[in-house]
Structure to design on (194 residues):
C-alpha cells in the first residue's frame, strides 16, 4: 500500500469511529423531561425539546458525529455543532464551551447551550427537529409529569409520617422523663407501698 492509500484508509477508519455512537447514557423520555424541568425550561416547550433529543441523538448523551461540512463535528444529546457553537479542545464558539463537554452524561451545560441556539435561531437550527418534530405529533410527556407529581406526593406523605413518628417519640420521651422526675421526688416508702 502506498502512503496516500494508507492515509485514506486511516482517515476513513477514523471517520467511522468518530461517527459511531459512543457508549453513553441513553435517557428515557421521563429522565429527559426531569433534566429539562431541572434547568427550568418552559413547560410548553418541553415536548419539542424531547422530540429534538430523540431525533438528533436518540437520547444518547455522549454521541459524537462527523465530520460534517467544514470538517465540523456534532456533540452530545442535542448534537451541538463545532462550526459555530463550541470549539474542540478549548472553550469557544457562541456558547463559549469545549465541544467535548457536551459529550458526557451531565446534560445541564448542553441544555444551556441548546437554549441559546434555540433563542438565536429557533428549533429550525436542528435538521432532526425540522424533519421529525415540526408539524408532527410531539411526544406525550404527561405521564412523566404525573409520575413526578405522584412521587412528590408520596415523598411528602413519607416525610409527614416520619415527622409524626418523631413527634410521637418525643412526646413519649417527655412523658417518661416527667414520670421519672415525679418518682424521683416521692419518698422511698411511698414508691414501695403507695
Amino acid at each position: 500500500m502506498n502512503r496516500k492509500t494508507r492515509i485514506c484508509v486511516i482517515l476513513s477508519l477514523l471517520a467511522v469511529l468518530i461517527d459511531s455512537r459512543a457508549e453513553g447514557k441513553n435517557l428515557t423520555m421521563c429522565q429527559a423531561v426531569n433534566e429539562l424541568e431541572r434547568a427550568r425550561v418552559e413547560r410548553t416547550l418541553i415536548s419539542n425539546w424531547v422530540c429534538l433529543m430523540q431525533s438528533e441523538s436518540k437520547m444518547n448523551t455522549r454521541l459524537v458525529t462527523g465530520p460534517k461540512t467544514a470538517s465540523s463535528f456534532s456533540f452530545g444529546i442535542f448534537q451541538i455543532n463545532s462550526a459555530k457553537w463550541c470549539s474542540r479542545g478549548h472553550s469557544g464558539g457562541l456558547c463559549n464551551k469545549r465541544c467535548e463537554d457536551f459529550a458526557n452524561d451531565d446534560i445541564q451545560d448542553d441544555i444551556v447551550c441548546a437554549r441559546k441556539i434555540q433563542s438565536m435561531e429557533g428549533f429550525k437550527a436542528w435538521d432532526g427537529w425540522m424533519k421529525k418534530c415540526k408539524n408532527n405529533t410531539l411526544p406525550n410527556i404527561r405521564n412523566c409529569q404525573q409520575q413526578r407529581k405522584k412521587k412528590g406526593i408520596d415523598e411528602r406523605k413519607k416525610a409527614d409520617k416520619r415527622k409524626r413518628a418523631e413527634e410521637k417519640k418525643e412526646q413519649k420521651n417527655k412523658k417518661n422523663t416527667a414520670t421519672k422526675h415525679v418518682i424521683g421526688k416521692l419518698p422511698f416508702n411511698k414508691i414501695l407501698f403507695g
About this structure: The beta strands are 64-65, 74-75, 80-81.
